[in-house]
Structure formats: C-alpha cells, structure tokens
C-alpha cells in the first residue's frame, strides 16, 4: 500500500504544457448546526502526456515538488468527459 496521498477530482483547465488544474470537492459539517457545505480545493497537477481534458474525472497522487505550485501527478483518467 502506498503512503502517498491520492485524490479524485475534475479537470478544470489544461491550457498549460504538461500541467492541468484539478478541482477536488469535499464536504465539511458546521460545528453547531450540523449542515454540510461543499468545499473545493484546486491543485496543479503534472500531466506528462497531456491526456487529460477539461471535464474529465481524474485520479491524482502526491509527488515531489515539480515547481512552485505543482506537487501532484496524474495517476489515471477515471472517466472521460462527453464530447460535444
């Protein structure tokens, strides 16, 4: 079992070379009232083959720092976005 963190998220942007931006959604409960809210975190992800497209659901894994903001790498494309 890997000790690296893994997340599943949605590709927002692929306008860079070998990089994508992935949004990961998570839920947090209010301490007093218990209502759940959706929170979104964005991650810069290294995509060596430029395979991910906006709208794709991808699995990312934590890796060594590739640049100032890029600390995640693309593991696999879970589901491709529908082609319009």
Cross-sheet strand order for the largest sheet: 1-2-3-5-4
What is the overall number of helices? 0
Strand content: over 45%
Q: Could you name the ranges where pLDDT drops below 50 across 5 or more consecutive residues?
A: none
How would you describe what is shown here?
This protein starts with 5 loop residues before the first strand and ends in a 5-residue tail after the last strand. Strands 1-2-3-5-4 form a 5-stranded mixed barrel. The radius of gyration is 14 Å and the shape is globular. By secondary structure, the chain is mostly beta strands. It contains no helices and 5 strands.
Tags for this entry?
84 residues; mainly beta; OB fold (Dihydrolipoamide Acetyltransferase, E2P)
Topology:
Layout: E1 6-16, E2 19-29, E3 36-46, E4 57-62, E5 70-79
Parallel strand pairs: 3-5
Antiparallel strand pairs: 1-2, 1-4, 2-3, 4-5
Could you write a compact summary of the structure shown?
0% of the residues lie in helices and 58% in strands.
